Amino acid sequence: MTSGHLEVETKYDVEENFAVPDMSGLAGVATVDEPVEHQLEAVYLDTEDLRLLRARVTLRRRTGGPDAGWHLKLPAGTARRELHAPLGEATKDAPQALQEPVAGILRGARARPVTTLRTHRLVTALRAADGELLAEIADDTVTATLLAGPDGAAEVYAWREVEVELGCGDEALGAAVGERLISAGARPSSSASKVGRVLAGRLAGQPSGSHARGPKRKKKGPAAGEFLHAALSEQVAALQAADVQLRTEQPDALHQVRVAARRLRSTLAAFRDVLDREATAPLREELSWLGGQLASARDEEVALEHLRAVVADEPVELVLGPVAARLQQTALREIRAGLDRALLTVSEPRYLRLLDDLHALLADPPFTARAEGALKPVLRATTRRSVRRLRRRLAAARRAPEPARAEALHEVRKAAKRARYAAEVGRGELAHVTALARSAKRVQTVLGEVQDTVVTREQCRRLGIAAAAAGENSFTYGRLNGLEQARAERAEAKFWALEREVRPVLKAAE
């Protein structure tokens, strides 16, 4: 069984003779407890190439102190989300419940002990008037043992640091505590974690499967391949971060996985002159498969949230029967089912192979001769191709007869998305792509609303049938369908007005 909390922590480096200053008198602090002493031992686990640490994740087994047990710390913006599991029997393997959230990072590799940290800790608690914990100041004297190399020779490190972890206190309290520590001689630490400090040398090296490799140029500015490698590395990291969020069922995680997969697929397609297209085509196909697997779950979630909002705004006399309740129950059922399908997808060997292949691509990119060339001509070419594609789709949509119009507009939306992603990759290098990215995003958003109504109208139809079968009044579902049809027509009209504004931007970008 696991539990967890959000950890908001700041670290400070201190000298051996440092004394933690008195924290009495800080705003909101009613009492300062006497320091409590703990002897802690933590064994940190990671893969041979430190995949967890490189993803800002730490996994450890700690004994001693009030939080003895297995701990998994995951990035959560500027804070970290910490999951706990009981110690259980002494073992070198972490509980499965803590391995599952990082399965996409481990990708089948075993996490083994990499270092042991022994910490003498003095904890000072700051409390509010009602006794609630505002913050803890941990004065740590640390000894770390690192096994280095096949001969088993041990390296030992020792240092002292102070951690400030917020309880129910706010950031202002954390800043005030930090000011007193700095005034007493502390320095903000550059190490995100104790284990990161110990393994800094290995982390600075080139990891297997994730290190940066790309052509280097002596001339000003990066080579095309070097730039592309950096962009792909960021996008793979974004997919990996979204993967962890999905496995821990964080809000909007499913959407973020889809976005990351789409960006990667778009970048591989746009830069097919720089990366061998035969080598990247299978990756693009697998990224398309991933997006398709997750699409329906996300679409249903958005549709049901929208319909619930529409019903909430409807006049009471037009909502006949238990419409809101049916929508709520359907949303709960569909969202849970969609999440379960997504979790099954990211557990499939096919998905894990995709992650392996993406990291292999970063480790040994199949560059073409153009990778050694200047960046800007490549960016101009990729942008120009995506713009031409979008203009062709727009022309086809203008000619499309009414029955085929919806599919033609869907193709426009996909082309706009590709143009946007291509422009965003080149932002900062080409002046004109900012306007292109903005215009493409507007097209994508407006046509996204048209596409959303396709899903909402189908939901209205299914809900109406289910309501009628249950003996309920189905009037409101028909009304909702009509409202969604009207929304689609408004969105399409808005798109054609926008299309006239976008034409000059596309012409300039081409």
Observed structural traits:
510 residues, Hypothetical Protein Pfu-838710-001, CHAD domain, 2 domains, eleven-stranded antiparallel beta sheet, 15 helices, globular
How would you describe this structure to a colleague?
It is a single chain. The chain has helices at residues 51-54, 96-99, 103-106, 171-183, 194-198, 200-204, 224-247, 253-270, 277-313, 323-347, 349-363, 375-399, 402-426, 433-469, 475-509; strands spanning 3-7, 9-13, 31-32, 36-46, 58-63, 69-76, 79-85, 112-127, 133-148, 153-166, 187-188. By secondary structure, it is an alpha+beta fold. The protein has two domains: 3-204, Hypothetical Protein Pfu-838710-001; 224-509, CHAD domain (Alpha solenoid). Strands 1, 2, 3, 4, 5, 6, 7, 8, 9, 10 and 11 form an eleven-stranded antiparallel beta sheet that branches. α8 (253-270) runs antiparallel to α9 (277-313), α12 (375-399) packs antiparallel against α13 and α14 runs antiparallel to α15. 34% of the residues are buried.
